[in-house]
Design a protein that fits this description.
By secondary structure, the protein is α+β, with helices and mostly antiparallel strands. It is built from 5 helices and 16 strands. The protein has a single domain, classed as Sandwich (Jelly Rolls), CATH 2.60.120.620. The strands form 4 sheets. A 7-stranded antiparallel beta sheet has the order 1-2-12-9-14-4-3, covered by helices on one side. It has a 4-stranded antiparallel beta sheet with strand order 5-13-10-11. The two termini are 32 Å apart.
Length: 227
Amino acid sequence: MDGENIGDVREGFAIEPAVISPGECDTLADTISSSFESRRAGIRHLMQDESVRTIASDDRLLAIAKRFLGSVAVPYRATLFEKSGRANWLVVWHQDTALPLEQRFSSPNWGPWSTKESINYAHAPSSALERVIALRLHLDASSSSNGPLRVIPGSHLMGVLDDGAVFDHARKNESVECTVPIGGVIAMRPLIIHASSKAKVDAPRRVLHIEYADTLEFGDNIRLTIA
C-alpha cells in the first residue's frame, strides 16, 4: 500500500503518501534529536519546540486536518514515537481517549485523571474526541517489517468503548495495515481502534504524532493545553 491514497473522512483515517519532502523530514528529525533527550520510545510534549510548532502549522498539514475538522484546525499536542531495535514494542488494540487540559475540574463525563510531566490529562467523552484529528508524519518509511500502524476502518463511529468491546470488535472486523513512505501522513480519529506489532527488522520508524482540534475551548473551564 506504499504510495497510495487510502481511507477517507467517513472511515476515520486517511493516508497521504507524499506531503513533506524527505529532506525536510531529515532536518526535522535532526533538530528534535539535538534539542531533546530521547526516552526509550520517544518524546512527549514537543509543541514547545519551534521546529515542531512550525511544521504543525504548515499549510500542507493544516489542509489535511481541515478535511476532518472543518474550517479551523488548531495544533495542540505533539509526540515523537520512535520504534527501533533498541526500543521495540507491541501496542495492543485500543482507542486514544486522554486529552491534555489546562486545569482539573469535576465532571461526570471526564476522567479518570492523570498527570504526565506536570500536564493534566483526563479521559474525554466522545463528544470532545469527535472534534480531534491526529496527523502522523512519518520521518522514516513505515513498512510491513517495522511495526506499522493498523486500523479498523469505521470503528471511530462506535464511541468510547471499554477494553473488552475494543478487543471483541478487533477480533470480528478486518484491519488495514498503514504502510507509508517517508514524508507521508496518516490522519486518524482518536477513537478509531488501532494497534501496531513489534518491528521485525532493526530499522528506525520515527513518527511525529501531531493532534489538532477545531477549538481549544470545550466548555466552561474545559480548555485544551498546548503540549
